[in-house]
């Protein structure tokens, strides 16, 4: 990123940019913190030159950001030593309809709602922030409510919440963000987006490499966007989907059940799709499913409409689904013209399910991660940037613009049309958030950066469907075009 772009970044995002040095400084790698936590700490401890005291920051992490294996010691301090303990953690809220009692969970530490309580005075002080999401990050303070056996019914001992301060130290102003984007040209903005998610734009040789990397962010900004990516090892799939945003979930290998993904009948709790912006099944070739037919049916219904039915329970969610896997050198050399899905788990060996994925990311267009691709310089705060993308998911004005701009050919398949429009909408939000009406973007820019890329991503899915199922052979993606803005 050149000095003029950095100057503009400082001018328009003064409170939201930090100095990141992932190339030369291994300090944060040793701490093993996700990007959103790291940038929160950088903003807290860095001076105007981007310098910070390693020892001071390390002491803060040791004191307030515990690891999972610290939990027993923390619980002992709270319960046995009657201490108050403050820590940065993810907290979930549960309200008992029968009793009116409010409790909380700490999912990263295995603390359940049965073991906790939020008393009314604390609840009314913090409820606006605590109910803003299924799980919320923040600085929490915990103490112990002693048991009382002298009354009937007996009052059990519980860990109680004393205070809560939201992790996000600022207010997200979408209108300001949109206006600020207009101060950058498209190339500058692409580089800025890469820096926001920890990548050094100068390390890429070609624009296509940058844009393919950015494609991974589309589910961050658009609801229920379902993608498949196959890529060589070492291209950063796990990092981007699992360590950059606090709004997503990465599952690597192991066993996946319908209960975990959608709804657990025995616990009466909704699954991963209800609490995250996107679910990434990484190393998908190594994931097994407890009941293939059950999971396939649940996935088909959810990917189509966002509705899932388990037993008598019907739920809705807006989480996108991403399948990530590795691909052989031979398949890459064929550029996706051979069967790429043969090594996927059996649950995905059905064309009707694959058709519900909107697009395909050709991960072989992304270079293998090297130190030169790691950010070393001023960049947007990852936590701020991903919070913006999270908020943009709710903005439906972009889809209305896409509906105006795209000319749908006669006889186009409904799923193809929806896939192209949904991907194009995500690109518009990500690369041109300043667009408020259709005439705000040049047709050639919309065609180049949004529509054509969306069509290419959908065309790969179409090609693979033809390889998988004879019913789809010879059915190429129709020619979607950009409407002349003079017609609007």
Topology summary:
Elements: H1 3-12, E1 17-21, H2 27-31, H3 35-45, H4 54-64, H5 71-79, E2 85-95, E3 102-105, E4 116-117, H6 120-130, E5 135-145, E6 158-166, H7 174-181, H8 186-196, H9 207-215, H10 218-221, E7 227-231, H11 237-243, E8 248-256, H12 258-261, E9 263-264, E10 269-270, E11 278-289, H13 292-305, E12 307-310, E13 313-316, E14 320-326, H14 329-333, H15 351-354, E15 359-362, E16 376-380, H16 382-392, H17 397-405, E17 406-407, H18 414-431, H19 443-468, E18 481-482
Parallel strand pairs: 4-6, 7-14, 7-15, 8-11, 11-14
Antiparallel strand pairs: 1-16, 2-3, 2-5, 5-6, 9-10, 12-13, 17-18
Helix pairs in contact: 3-16, 8-9, 17-18, 18-19
Structural features, described:
The protein has helices spanning 3-12, 27-31, 35-45, 54-64, 71-79, 120-130, 174-181, 186-196, 207-215, 218-221, 237-243, 258-261, 292-305, 329-333, 351-354, 382-392, 397-405, 414-431, 443-468, and strands at 17-21, 85-95, 102-105, 116-117, 135-145, 158-166, 227-231, 248-256, 263-264, 269-270, 278-289, 307-310, 313-316, 320-326, 359-362, 376-380, 406-407, 481-482. It is 38% helix and 20% strand. With 488 residues, it is of the alpha/beta class. A hairpin with a 4-residue loop joins strand 9 and strand 10. It has a five-stranded mixed beta sheet. It is globular and about 75 Å long.
Concise synopsis of the structure shown:
With 488 residues, this protein is an alpha/beta fold. The protein is 38% helix and 20% strand.
């Amino acid at each position: 990123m050149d000095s003029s772009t950095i100057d503009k970044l400082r001018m328009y995002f003064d409170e939201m940019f930090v100095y990141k040095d992932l190339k030369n400084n291994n300090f944060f790698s040793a701490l093993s913190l996700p990007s959103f936590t790291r940038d929160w700490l950088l903003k807290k401890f860095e001076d105007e030159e981007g310098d910070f005291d390693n020892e001071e920051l390390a002491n803060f992490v040791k004191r307030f950001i515990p690891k999972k294996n610290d939990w027993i010691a923390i619980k002992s301090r709270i319960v046995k030593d009657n201490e108050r303990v403050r820590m940065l953690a993810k907290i979930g809220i549960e309200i008992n309809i029968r009793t009116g009692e409010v409790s909380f969970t700490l999912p990263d530490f295995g603390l359940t709602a049965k073991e906790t309580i939020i008393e009314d005075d604390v609840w009314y002080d913090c409820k606006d922030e605590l109910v803003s999401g299924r799980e919320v990050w923040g600085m929490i303070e915990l103490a112990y409510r002693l048991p009382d056996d002298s009354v009937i019914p007996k009052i059990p001992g519980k860990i109680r919440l004393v205070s809560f301060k939201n992790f996000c130290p600022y207010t997200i102003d979408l209108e300001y963000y949109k206006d600020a984007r207009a101060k950058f040209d498209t190339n500058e903005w692409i580089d800025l987006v890469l820096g926001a998610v920890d990548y050094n734009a100068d390390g890429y040789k070609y624009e296509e490499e940058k844009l393919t990397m950015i494609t991974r962010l589309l589910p961050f900004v658009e609801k229920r966007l379902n993608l498949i990516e196959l890529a060589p090892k070492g291209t950063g799939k796990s990092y981007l989907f699992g360590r950059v945003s606090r709004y997503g979930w990465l599952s690597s290998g192991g066993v996946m059940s319908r209960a975990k993904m959608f709804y657990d009948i025995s616990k009466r709790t909704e699954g991963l799709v209800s609490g995250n912006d996107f679910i990434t099944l990484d190393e998908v070739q190594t994931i097994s499913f407890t009941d293939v037919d059950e999971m396939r049916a649940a996935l088909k219904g959810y990917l189509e409409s966002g509705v899932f039915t388990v037993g008598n329970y019907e739920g809705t969610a807006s989480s996108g689904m991403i399948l990530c896997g590795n691909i052989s050198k031979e398949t890459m050399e064929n550029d996706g013209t051979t069967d790429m899905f043969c090594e996927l788990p059996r649950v995905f060996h059905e064309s009707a399910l694959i058709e519900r994925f909107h697009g395909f990311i050709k991960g072989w267009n992304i270079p293998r991660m090297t130190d030169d691709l790691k950010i070393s310089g001023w960049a947007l705060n990852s936590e701020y940037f991903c919070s913006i993308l999270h908020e943009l998911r709710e903005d439906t004005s972009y889809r209305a613009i896409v509906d105006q701009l795209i000319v749908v050919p006669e006889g186009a398949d409904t799923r193809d049309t929806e896939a192209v429009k949904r991907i194009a909408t995500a690109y518009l939000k990500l690369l041109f958030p300043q667009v408020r009406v259709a005439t705000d973007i040049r047709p050639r820019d919309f065609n180049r950066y949004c529509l054509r890329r969306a069509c290419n991503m959908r065309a790969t899915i179409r090609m693979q469907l033809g390889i998988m199922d004879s019913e789809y052979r010879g059915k190429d993606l129709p020619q979607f075009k950009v409407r002349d803005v003079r017609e609007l």
